[in-house]
Structure formats: C-alpha cells, structure tokens
Design a protein that fits this description.
ATP binding, 10 strands, alpha/beta, ABC_transporter-like_ATP-bd, 11 helices
C-alpha cells in the first residue's frame, strides 16, 4: 500500500510504537485523549507520557491535530464553545478535567506560549508582572520581573526599557517577553505552539537555546514543523498523522534518537525524511 494512501495515514499507531516509562512517574500523562469540535472528531485516542524536566516535540503534517492536542494539556480548549474533550489528562497525579479542578489554576501551573508573539498592550514590566498580580502578589514584584526576564534571556536587552510598551521591541524580544510572562508564575510545564515560526533565524536560534536552558527547570512540550529544530532541542518526539477524514492520531512516540534515527512506523520514516508531509 502506498505511503500516501488515505487509509494508511488514518491508522492509529501500534501500541508497541508508543514509549512507556516504567521506572518513573510522568509529570503529565494523557490516556485515550480525544477532542471533538461540534461533534466532529479532531484528535482521537492519544496516550502520552511526559517526564519531568524534558522537552517533548509534537511533530507531523499540517492539520494532524498537534495544536489541538497541545491545548488539551492546560484546558485551553475549554475556551472554545464547540469543543468536547474525552479521556484523561493527569498532571502531577491529578486529573485536570475533574469537576473540582479550577482551569485557571491549571493554566498558571501549565503555561502557554503561542505561535505569534502576543504581548499585552502594556509596558514590558506590566506584561511580566501580570500573572503574579492576578495571583495576589504585591511584594517583590521588581525581583520577580527581573528574574523572569533573566530566565527568558532577554533582561540585558530590555532592562533599560521596562516602561516601554511590550509591543515596541523586536519580534524575537516580544516572544521572549511572552516566555518571561509565562515563567513569572513559576509553572511546572510550558506549552509552546511553534514559538519560533514567525521569527528570523537569529531570533529562532535564541529561542532554541532558551528552551534547552529552561528544560533543566521546567518541562516543555513544543509543537514544531521544523524537523531540524525538533532534533536539536528535544529529548522525545511524538509523531501525529491524519488522513482525509482529518482525525489526528499519534502513530509513534519515542526518544529523539529512536524516532529520527530508527523509526518503528513506516509513516514516521516517510515524514522525517520528507517523503510525505
């Protein structure tokens, strides 16, 4: 059967293609996770384990549900009226979709950085201080802002411009300010949806280096279409595919070395070598 056949691309991955961690308790774990919009299934049956202090890349062709899946991990799909989520997402041993869980609290603990930089129309200082203020912090804001901007590797570039608008700096600096804003509330996980796709090569390199440095402190799950980027920054890679019916399924999950060097699924090999996608 041809690799670009609709039926082949629509098949779920074999269970033996999905990495399981027997010796550690994952920080985040999905079990049979599915998402529908207006009754139409977008993502089906995703089971994924994410270890603490790792970088996991979600890769696959456009339209295979990577961003939809990412938004499940901090309940961002709750903000879409037609969205429906089934299955489980356990974070630090807690089902984040349980009825007694506050999604706002989850979004502080699992932050998100979007594809295009989206600083608020406020000063750089107030962008970073926004989350701590909402959480009721009034003391030591100066220290929090500086520490967060330092962690995002942008302090030296903006330290004399903290009262300037967050929209007044370059795109790469805006994205790192958005990362600093996410870090200011000390999240345990940061979700990144193609954070460098709208940036120039120099800014992209800075974001990639930042991701690698941050992974010693926080867990990062990143959606990327850039195979070279995924190989450079990730510890693990999850491959998603969707056929003509546009239902995204995870077909393989493993270490970077295994997925890119010795893929178990022929569709993964075809994708990472550029034959499909």
């Amino acid at each position: 059967m041809a690799l670009n056949d609709t039926d082949l691309l629509s098949q779920a991955g074999s269970a033996e293609n999905i990495l399981k961690f027997d010796d550690i308790e994952p920080l985040l774990e999905s079990n049979d996770l599915s998402v529908s919009y207006g009754g139409q299934t977008a993502v089906s049956g995703v089971s994924l384990q994410v270890p603490k202090n790792s970088v996991v890349s979600l890769i696959g062709p456009s339209g295979c549900g990577k961003s939809t899946l990412l938004r499940c991990f901090n309940r961002m799909n709750d903000l879409i009226p037609s969205a429906s989520v089934s299955g489980k997402v356990n974070f630090a041993g807690q089902d984040i979709y349980a009825h007694d869980v506050d999604p706002t609290e989850i979004r502080f603990r699992i932050g998100m950085v979007f594809q295009r930089p989206n600083p608020f129309p406020k000063s750089i200082y107030e962008n970073v201080a926004f989350g701590p203020r909402i959480n009721g912090m009034t003391d030591d804001l100066d220290e929090v802002v500086e520490t967060s901007l330092r962690r995002a590797a942008v302090w030296d570039e903006v330290k004399d411009r903290l009262n300037d608008s967050g929209l007044s700096v370059s795109g790469g600096q805006q994205q790192r300010i958005c990362i600093a804003r996410a870090l200011a509330v000390n999240p345990e996980i940061v979700l990144m949806d193609e954070p460098a796709s709208a940036l120039d090569p120099i800014s992209t390199q800075a974001i990639e280096q930042l991701i690698q440095e941050l992974s010693s402190e926080v867990t990062i799950i990143i959606v990327t279409h850039n195979m070279q980027q995924a190989t450079r920054i990730s510890d693990y890679a999850a491959v998603m595919m969707a056929g003509e019916e546009r239902i995204g399924r995870m077909i393989e999950y493993g270490t970077n070395e295994q997925v890119f060097g010795n893929p178990k699924d022929e569709r993964t090999e075809a994708y990472v070598t550029g034959r499909i996608g």
